[in-house]
Write a structure and sequence with these properties.
The chain is α+β, with helices and mostly antiparallel strands. It has a single domain, classed as Beta Barrel (OB fold (Dihydrolipoamide Acetyltransferase, E2P)), CATH 2.40.50.140. Helices cover 24% and strands 33% of the residues. The chain is built from 3 helices and 6 strands. The chain has a 5-stranded mixed barrel. A hairpin with a 5-residue loop joins β2 and β3. The radius of gyration is 19 Å and the shape is elongated.
Length: 136
């Protein structure tokens, strides 16, 4: 009897622990402002190839000449891999142009929609976890 109760408690605890990342995933619509899409060009500072989202850190020069650092969240590495995008695709110090939805809180974070490399090659980098991106 004690073994059965302990097993039930252990299995329940493992199921709750395994489901936690699903509840922790944020809503793109709540975090980022799709009504204010922006396009920015900057220099790749870092590419983070992590789950649940890859991200790219870019330095963007403003109209005043000042550099601001942005973190752009992208799709999961597996999703990016399937589109042909690899961690090495956007080389450090290379110039990229990104169409993004900026964070609603005004921070220099955004969710990426489209990445264009200096050679003109484009990648759909949006988070396809379940929110929205209009399709043609």
């Amino acid at each position: 009897m004690k073994s059965s109760t302990a097993t039930t408690i252990l299995i329940t605890a493992l199921m709750v622990f395994a489901a936690t990342p699903l509840f922790a995933h944020h809503s793109v619509a709540k975090t980022f402002d799709s009504s204010r899409p922006i396009t920015m060009t900057g220099t790749v500072k870092e590419v983070r190839w992590l789950n649940p989202h890859a991200s790219m850190i870019i330095d963007v020069k403003g109209t005043d000449g000042k550099i601001s650092t942005w973190e752009v969240e992208m799709a999961a590495p597996n999703t990016l891999f399937r589109t042909g995008f690899r961690k090495e695709t956007a080389a450090l110090s290379s110039l990229v142009t990104m169409q993004v939805w900026p964070a609603r809180d005004g921070s220099r974070t955004a969710t990426g929609l489209l990445l264009t490399l200096a050679d003109g090659k484009q990648f759909d980098i949006h988070d396809s976890f379940g929110d929205f991106l209009p399709r043609k």
